[in-house]
Amino acid sequence: MCEDKEHRIRPEQVFIEPELSIVNKCFKPEINDKPSYGYTKSAYWMKFSLTNSDSENIKIVIKLVSLIDDIVLYSFDRNTKNLQLISTTGRNHPLSSRLANHRNFIFRVNVPAQQKRDFLFRFESSGSMLLPVTIMSEDHYSNQDHLESLAFGFYFGFMAVMILYNLFLYWSVKDRSYLYYCGYILFFILLQAGIWGFLNQFILPENPYFANKLLPSSILFSVFFSMLFLRNFLGTDKNAPLIDKIIIGIIIFSFCTAVASWVGPYRLMVQIGVFTGMLGSIFIAVSSGVLYLKGYKAARFLFLAFFALILGIFVIGLRNFGFLPFNFATSYSAQIGSALEVLLLSLALGDRINIMKKERELEKEKALLRERNLNESFARFVPSEFLNFLNKEDITRVNLGDAVQKEMTVLFSDIRSFTTISERFSARDNFKYLNLYLEKIGPLIRNNGGFIDKFIGDAVMALFPEKPDDAIRAAREMLLARDEFNNEIVNQGGWPALQIGIGIHYGSLILGTLGESQRMETTVISDAVNVASRVESLTKESASTILTTGETVAALKESKDFVVFKESRRLKGREREVEIWEVN
Predict the structure, then answer these.
(1) CB under 8 Å to 369, separation ≥6 — which residues?
(2) Residues 351, 298: contact at Cβ < 8 Å?
(3) Residue ranges making up the domain that contains 103
(4) What pLDDT, in 10s, does the model give residues 469-513?
(5) What is the reported pTM?
């Protein structure tokens, strides 16, 4: 590493003219793999070499964080003495200047087989000089980027949900605390989006000036709304007049500096913003602690919330000024602290809701009763067997992502030409027709140890967790029930007889919950489900009503006398042929 205080070093001096004293004295080994030099006006040079000892060319990914204003990358070929400019980019440049459309700065370089390449970076930044350069393979980068994207998606999604949640609470109780809290979270999200490069990538890709200016203003507006929230939530104008005067002063200062940050020097405004954010968080924690000691119980969660945020902001502030290294803990401290803060503030606001609703206890009990009835209604849509497999006592304990793997038998049953049948009747009659049939076969599935996973139009998907013999037995009984249904329905006059096809397959299944935070359902994911569906569709091509697979037959213990080998077929989505057996 080399600190170029006077901005005099040229890239050719490093490789082509290395004997120059200014270069020899400047470059020093850097023992920290993630160097951080704080706020500085100096330019920094980073020199390193990559050696490829393999017999084939390799592609290397070089990643830098998103907070560097100007970045220039050179490569040097020792054999040809060729110094090549690879890229000129940085936060002061539009997204189109980057070699990859990414929130960070990504450089992909090739190192020829059995050769060595030298690389040289030049950095300038009006913000904190954070230089955690990561060098990795393409596969390693892809995996790491995927995990980071998931983590950031969860974080920003969580924060967005909290905004919507508190907007709903504001609409419900008309308490301005929730509105101020939403403003605070919004600008904190913008701050994090700016720090981690999402502003430049998604919101203002070709306007780096506005993206950069938004960073200090987001810090200061976060302080502004947090102070409004503190004043309204704790009622400091009545409960703590001295603290209230200080809060008003911080509100005025943070608002004015937030507006001034759009015209003031970036370096100065960022430093003011960081100091204001750190001191503001400390002040909120101290104020809420003082009021809690005075007997204002609602302040206890507020104290814990901002104490968690203080740790996060304090750590990242010390990192930006170069007192702490750039690592996982210092990089993600703000996210961890803010997530805990949002959670604890939600508890604080929940406390406030309970206090405000004491006079409406009867309405609350009615709402709880309605919710309980609703949960009981939901339970009818989720098989109890499914809850047992997930080790859940009731539907309210089911969470998105709950899953379990188990060997089971899948049974698919479909009514032949139901579309043609349905055209002859009204919608009400179609539902009546289907429900009469399903009332016949549902008990048969349950009596044979299975349960219905879902209804797919006129098709039924059932699971048999114990043994394939249960599915074979249920399928044969379903044919008898079909005949009984046809006799009854035809005798009523005007109703057509129906024909069905059944496909059965035994294999490994993953049972779990699928969807998103506002809509999810229990379901089964596996190749076994697809095979059972494909096998059922084969019944349309033959005279067979029930077909199963060789895997199912191999697992049978009691029903092998009822199956006959039919053929081997290659099913859609499968490379190998599948044995098809007919069930008599």
Answers:
(1) none
(2) yes
(3) 2-132
(4) 999 999 999 999 999 998 888 777 667 888 999 999 999 998 888
(5) 0.56
